[in-house]
What does this fold into?
Amino acid sequence: MAEPSIIVVGAGPAGFRAAQTLADAGLRPIVMDEARRAGGQIYRRQPEGFTRSHQDLYGTEANRARSVHDGFDALLPHIDYRSDTLVWHLSDGQAWTLGPDGHRSTPYDALLLCTGATDRVMPVKGWHHAGTYSLGAAQIALKAQACAIGSRVVFLGSGPLLYLVAAQYAKAGANVAAVLDTSPFSARIAALPNLLCQPAVLWNGIALTRDIKKAGIPVLYGVTPVEVVGNPETGVGSLRFRASDGTEQDIDCDAIGMGHHLRPEAQLADLARCDFAFEALTRQWLPVQDSDGRSSVDGVYLAGDGARISGARSAEVSGRLAALAVLKDLGFPVDSADLTHLRSAKARYGRFARGLAQAFPWPSEQAKALPDETIVCRCEAVTAGTLRETVREAGAREANRAKALSRVGMGRCQGRYCGLAAAEIIAAEAGVPLESVGRLRNAAPVKPIAIGTARTSGE
Amino acid sequence: MSGRFVRLAEMDRKPLTFLVDGAPVDALEGDTLMVAILTSSRRLRDSEFGDGARSGFCLMAACQDCWVWTSDGDKLRACSTFARAGLEISRRAPEATWPNLP
It folds into this structure.
């Protein structure tokens, strides 16, 4: 039999470990990555010519970042690496890509989706003003460009990234006005039993909060955001919020980094026709997988945060495990001790991830309380009121119907940043459980591409 | 006018200049278009829906809120395109032109 064609999509920690495991077995996987340099988002590399050290950029995770970067570079002779390459569709057993040499389609026998995550964001009235960014964006500005997103920054939301980015900004000398966490401190206590299964990671998180407070930055828990006060011309001017004691306060700032943990970039799993299931704890639909990362579709495998938010350390484990599943299914010998070890590590990280979801819950009740004039869809400036009217007047109780009628989720981000909040608004307005609203169907291309260039050469 | 983004380090890179809406903008080699534009100004584009200035959102090529245009009318994502000397960038979408259909 000819060597099987194996495509790994994504070159972050999951994609790297998957490719390495396949190469170790003597195969030559194709690694397609949208970025110019491998590493993914959390271990994103700065451009050539920048001189900050791994320690400066990645802190406690410097050694892990270095091992992913150096490991990937060492792997280059053994893989077919296609950087700057967007996989925009999957059909007929082929990956359709747009890269430096134009459009191509590449057939595969096995496909490993290591597509990573984007920020999960709960809208706030006024978040469309210039100067509002996702937490991930704030981190990329610093890590990849050595910039702060503003001269006085408020970080708002919840999740580990809230504290990581704030601590990184403080360390780099940026002016951070406050860290406002929507989750109550008590949630963290309730999550302790799960969080204690990764004591070192838990300790890193506690140390970050300590660093932020040491830098004199106020950290508030149980906050309810009220409005990003701003001006259409000049952008963000302040953030108005309700503190846990019920008092309303205003903090002057010219930039806000906001987000509530992360969401998987699972569009390709959807285009590959993988089954999804609703997860009540995170209130998200996730692609279904077995313990090793097999999806419901033969030949399609899932790993890393693109399948389920579990963090970069977990992604390295699930990437290796999914690659072993590929090898096993293709008839290659696989050491069962390796499988056992990786499965138990993946389960441990999964438990920790559940702890994080408990400690930093998605504030679904905020969606219900958003004033009607709040822009929910930033792409096309569609308000919460318009979406609610669609539910009330047209009876749209399902996500895709509400999208068709209101255009929420139809814009250039394709629902990445409004879809989860929109589903909460629909559920609240219709008085139905979130699960019954369903999820936005994904369509090709997964990101906008120029129509005129869609002439494709096969291989 | 002062910028939105604040440089904190890595300022020893080679300077370069390109044009934004016809005016020269100073940047450093390795800057994205977004960083080059937002370190000297506060907006990247205007929303087509009348809700005001925008300056990007995700910086990871997912939200598409940072589109700018070349003098040839090509659309670029400012967060994932590097600044180059001599580039001519417009923050306004070119007038729509419809090709003559056969």
